[in-house]
């Protein structure tokens, strides 16, 4: 294809830019694998994107269309002189990379950029999967206090409360529960939760479903748990249903049991995700 500008033909300029983009993208991947260097990474990324951007501009201006040509129609047919011109034109075009070669270079440059992007994405770590929907509580896990001491049936008096964690997971922030002991017969269990509160013990997630503040204040006269951040209150006897404040969800309840040695254990994990409602509820 003829090039109206002096110097290197359009196909070759585009090819050179795409080669530069490919080399810069591959160098970016190498720098990142080698430990990374912000200035070098920024410069290489700029070169790679800039070169492919200029190549796209040249492609749009010179190769993607022939433009509009207006001329008088000549006589139909041809002669030997026209045949010679066509042959010369074909030979001229065949000496240059051509559009097909340029397209291949576009694919190479795009592939190199994609390869360079793979390594930063992989460094984000594994996908969370269901880890945001579960906690460290397992069937049979003993409850321990903040000092790591197992909680026994006689640990709390009626009206008492403490913060507990799963044994061997004392630092799992999403697994902390507030344990309250009430008098037998006071709890109004929800359907299916009749066996979750042995000996008057009942446990709820300590993470407020509003914005995640710790719910730790217990008013024994009204049987309410209070979140100090925005004053949401939860009815301990009625599945921690919210009574006041901005919280709209009940605190997730942990099903409890008592093992043969008299220690409080978990029957299973929470039956719903813990934490603020904005990330796990539509």
Automatic annotation (TrEMBL):
<feature type="transmembrane region" description="Helical">
    <location>
        <begin position="42"/>
        <end position="60"/>
    </location>
</feature>
<protein>
    <recommendedName>
        <fullName>Cytochrome bc1 complex Rieske iron-sulfur subunit</fullName>
    </recommendedName>
</protein>
<dbReference type="InterPro" id="IPR017941">
    <property type="entry name" value="Rieske_2Fe-2S"/>
</dbReference>
<keyword id="KW-1015">Disulfide bond</keyword>
<dbReference type="InterPro" id="IPR036922">
    <property type="entry name" value="Rieske_2Fe-2S_sf"/>
</dbReference>
<keyword id="KW-0411">Iron-sulfur</keyword>
<keyword id="KW-0812">Transmembrane</keyword>
<keyword id="KW-0001">2Fe-2S</keyword>
<keyword id="KW-0472">Membrane</keyword>
<dbReference type="InterPro" id="IPR014349">
    <property type="entry name" value="Rieske_Fe-S_prot"/>
</dbReference>
<comment type="function">
    <text>Iron-sulfur subunit of the cytochrome bc1 complex, an essential component of the respiratory electron transport chain required for ATP synthesis. The bc1 complex catalyzes the oxidation of menaquinol and the reduction of cytochrome c in the respiratory chain. The bc1 complex operates through a Q-cycle mechanism that couples electron transfer to generation of the proton gradient that drives ATP synthesis.</text>
</comment>
<feature type="transmembrane region" description="Helical">
    <location>
        <begin position="14"/>
        <end position="35"/>
    </location>
</feature>
<dbReference type="GO" id="GO:0004497">
    <property type="term" value="F:monooxygenase activity"/>
</dbReference>
<dbReference type="GO" id="GO:0051537">
    <property type="term" value="F:2 iron, 2 sulfur cluster binding"/>
</dbReference>
<keyword id="KW-0560">Oxidoreductase</keyword>
<dbReference type="GO" id="GO:0016705">
    <property type="term" value="F:oxidoreductase activity, acting on paired donors, with incorporation or reduction of molecular oxygen"/>
</dbReference>
<dbReference type="GO" id="GO:0046872">
    <property type="term" value="F:metal ion binding"/>
</dbReference>
<feature type="domain" description="Rieske">
    <location>
        <begin position="148"/>
        <end position="265"/>
    </location>
</feature>
<keyword id="KW-0479">Metal-binding</keyword>
<keyword id="KW-1133">Transmembrane helix</keyword>
<keyword id="KW-0408">Iron</keyword>
<feature type="transmembrane region" description="Helical">
    <location>
        <begin position="105"/>
        <end position="124"/>
    </location>
</feature>
<dbReference type="Pfam" id="PF00355">
    <property type="entry name" value="Rieske"/>
</dbReference>
